[in-house]
Amino acid sequence: MKTKIQVCVIDDEKDGRDYIALLLENEFPEIHIAFQASSVEEAYIHLTKNVLDIIFLDIQLKDGTAFDLLSKFKDIDSQIIFITAFEHFAIQAIKNGAADYLLKPIKKIDFIVAVNKALENIKKNKIQPVNAANQNKISLPTLQGFKLTNITDIIRCEADSSYTTFHLTDRTKIIVSKTLHDFEEHLSEYNFFRIHHKHLINLSHLKEYIKGKGGQVIMADNSVLDVSVRKKNDFLHKIGHLD
User: Fold this and answer.
1) Which of 116, 175, 233, 243 is the most exposed place for a label (fewest CB within 10 A)?
2) Rounded to an integer, what distance in angstroms lies between the CA atom of residue 204 and that of residue 49?
3) CA-to-CA distance for 104 and 163, rounded, in angstroms?
4) Residues 137 and 88 in one domain
5) Contact 57/65 with Cβ under 8 angstroms?
6) Distances in Å between the alpha carbon of 159 and those of 3, 76, 129, 180, 230?
7) Which residue, of 126, 143, 172, is where some domain finishes?
8) Do 61 and 53 form a contact (C-beta atoms < 8 A)?
9) What mean pLDDT is reported for the chain?
10) Each residue's pLDDT tens digit, 193-242
11) What is the pLDDT averaged over residues 70-76?
């Protein structure tokens, strides 16, 4: 029988704990809440007795902060998803090894992406590097963990703030909680080119280029994408068609 992912929810507001529990129940049935806590002291007692995969940790607790709690431990192997009503805590959260952080009120899509990212990190820590047969694949997170995707099946990647959407040849989309820049260098080795700050395209799936100030491309999925003026000459040189 497959062991469930073990998590805890540490939040001084019962409504907050209940909402996270509901989201987990509906979106991630493979996850089990080992315990819930509302204070630094209560959480500390539980954390010394339980080995957890993910910790949902509110930054402001009734008897201190999340950072006060973490300072009690030399090291925590769990994936930590910080929760805060104040965006300025984000930098501190990242410095404390956050897998991700969520702003209150928590949006469902942000929650799904954050948990998905934590699950991907857990899988990466448990799985050996892919063998030679998988060198042309890329690991993309899914709701269940991650998906080894053939790079040749990726038509284009689209940036949306700190997320990247992968558009595949089977018309499916995978949303990843990483920036487009995180993938650009690796995929450029596989005939990908960044035509715009929002678009990284697979040149193998390029159908047409339309002239203009920067111009536009039409991809295999019939998407029409702008080419930035700054990228135009490099793009045309890359495909061997300079004006």
Assistant:
1) 243
2) 53
3) 19
4) no
5) no
6) 35, 32, 27, 6, 18
7) 126
8) no
9) 86
10) 999 999 999 999 999 999 999 999 999 999 999 999 999 999 998 888 65
11) 82
